[in-house]
Design goal:
This protein is an all-beta fold and about 450 residues long. It has 2 domains: about 10-370, Tricorn protease N-terminal domain (Neuraminidase, 6 Propeller), CATH 2.120.10.60; about 385-460, Immunoglobulin-like. It has strands at about 10, 20-25, 40, 45-50, 60-65, 70-75, 85, 90, 95-100, 110-115, 120-125, 140, 145-150, 160-165, 175, 185, 190-195, 195-205, 210-215, 225, 240-245, 245-250, 260-265, 275-280, 295, 300-305, 315, 325-330, 345, 350-355, 365-370, 385-390, 395-400, 410-415, 420-425, 430-435, 440-445, 450-460. The protein has a 5-stranded antiparallel beta sheet, with no helix packed on it. Strand 1 and strand 2 (about 20-25) form a beta hairpin. The chain is globular and about 60 Å long. The protein starts with 9 loop residues before the first strand and ends with a strand.
Length: about 450
């Protein structure tokens, strides 16, 4: 495998010293237009570019959080292994899994897996159109047995599917067909909460402005939780949802008071819908195309346009809709423009991609945004009361509180803010067996006094 070393680190000489550009894509060498989100395993950030690379069909790459160690793991070739990846990679601890929107045997897209060193690539499924879906543009989600995903519009009569497949490519099953009579064109990725999968459709519903739904992992129990109605609650939710265990949070690409999109929340049972924010272009961004992440205090996200330079913004907002703050204005000159993926978090910084960069190559960037201590996402000021060891661990670790703890609640979230583990403890020292895969996680302990303690944890299998 050819390893390419590029001068990657250079802290931007903008007024915002928190921003660092890790790489500027140049198309033939390392890809172009990284419209997908990143994945972090504790050592490397992994991502994909939609086009570029040797065959101009996109790439898979990895890079360290300090900007060194860039490696192009794969160049997509089209029929042989797919082309134009549009979602993020996920991991089972050994392999990375992803999808391409096009290419493969029938030109309708593929599902693939590859090891983190770029070896053992395997195309595990070819989409064929009618019958099993086509042209997936989201990401997969894994429950330990099956990978789940969605495909959007197939033709005028078929409006998209939900499917599951095993890691070795067997057991592909289409578990749900969207139709013109309910919802259509699922765009974001599914999230898993207990026995239900939650997601959104860009179109369909009572006002043809999109919906929120849930469905059981066996394909039964489908429930439409919400119909978007454009001006009141937003329209066209192309972003994925995130959950804190009580509410689902998300964004719509357009609609809302100003037609620029909105941030919303809704309970897992479909009640309690609330619009938290109307985007307004210059003031706070517009047309969000990525998803939110949640750290237990703030929601973080990006918009593709709007802000001071009309190139998009990075922001934070509290789950009750207060505390909105614009963290960064993308300017298209020093820090990229048009971010379309999700942010991820390593405990100290946010990482993301921009689809365009008016500078060296104008092919997109990977960036790092160092969070100051007052942003709300850094480890809690009370963290000295909480000790986790060993850290890194293999998923089995000990939590120790300085004071005796009774009826304290432990939550473990991933870098996307999804709650993956909950347990109540009644001792100051407790051993936890999470069963979680390799990656960066965040342990939050709410003690009996209502005080929150937080620590970053790394699992390495």
């Amino acid at each position: 495998m050819k390893t390419i070393f590029i001068l990657l680190i250079s802290i931007c000489t903008t007024a915002n010293a928190q921003y660092t550009q890790l790489i500027s894509f140049d198309e033939p060498t390392n890809g172009s237009q990284p419209n997908t989100s990143l994945f972090y395993d504790g050592t490397f950030l992994y991502g994909m570019t939609r086009i570029g690379g040797t065959y101009e069909y996109g790439t898979i790459f990895k890079i360290k959080p300090n900007g060194t160690g860039y490696v192009k793991l794969l160049g997509f070739k089209g029929t042989e292994n797919g082309r134009n990846p549009m979602g993020a990679l996920i991991s089972d601890g050994t392999f990375l899994y992803g999808m391409t929107a096009n290419g493969g045997k029938m030109g309708k897209g593929t599902i693939f897996k590859i090891k983190t060193d770029g070896t053992d690539y395997l195309k595990i499924h070819d989409f064929v159109g009618s019958g099993n879906g086509s042209n997936p543009i989201g990401s997969l989600v894994f429950d330990g047995t099956y990978l789940y995903g969605m495909t959007p519009l197939i033709n005028t009569n078929e409006k998209g599917t939900i499917f599951k497949i095993k890691q070795d490519g067997t057991g592909f099953t289409k578990i749900y067909d969207f139709s013109a009579t309910n919802e259509s064109y699922p765009r974001g990725s599914l999230i898993l909460g207990g026995t239900f999968l939650y997601g959104t459709t860009q179109l369909g519903g009572a006002k043809n402005a999109g919906t929120i739904f849930k469905i059981m992992t066996d394909g039964t129990g489908y429930v439409k939780l919400h119909d978007f109605d454009s001006s009141l609650s937003g329209a066209y939710p192309i972003c994925s949802l995130v959950s804190d265990g009580t509410f689902l949070y998300g964004m719509t690409e357009s609609g809302g008071k100003n037609g620029a999109g909105a941030i919303f929340k809704i309970k897992l049972d479909g009640t309690g819908f609330e619009k938290l924010l109307d985007f307004a272009f210059v003031a706070n961004g517009g047309f969000p195309k990525g998803s939110l992440i949640f750290d237990g205090t703030f929601l973080y996200g990006m918009t593709s346009v709007g802000g001071a330079s009309s190139k998009g913004v990075m922001f934070k907002i509290m789950p009750n809709g207060t505390g909105f703050s614009k963290l960064l204005d993308f300017d298209g000159i020093t820090n990229g423009s048009s971010p379309t993926g999700d942010l991820i978090y390593d405990g100290e910084s946010l990482y993301g991609t921009t689809g365009s960069y008016v500078g060296a190559f104008d092919k997109g960037t990977v960036f790092k945004f160092q969070l100051s201590t007052n942003t709300g996402i850094a480890e809690n000021a009370l963290e000295t009361s909480l000790t986790i060891y060993p850290n890194p661990s293999n998923g089995n670790f000990t939590i120790e509180m300085k004071e005796t703890s009774t009826n304290s609640n432990i939550e473990i979230c991933n870098s996307m803010g999804q709650n993956l583990f909950n347990q109540v403890i009644n001792a100051s020292k407790t051993t936890i067996n999470t069963g979680l895969k390799s990656g960066i996680y965040f342990v939050k302990v709410c003690d009996s006094k209502g005080q929150m303690h937080a620590k970053r944890m790394i699992i390495q299998q």
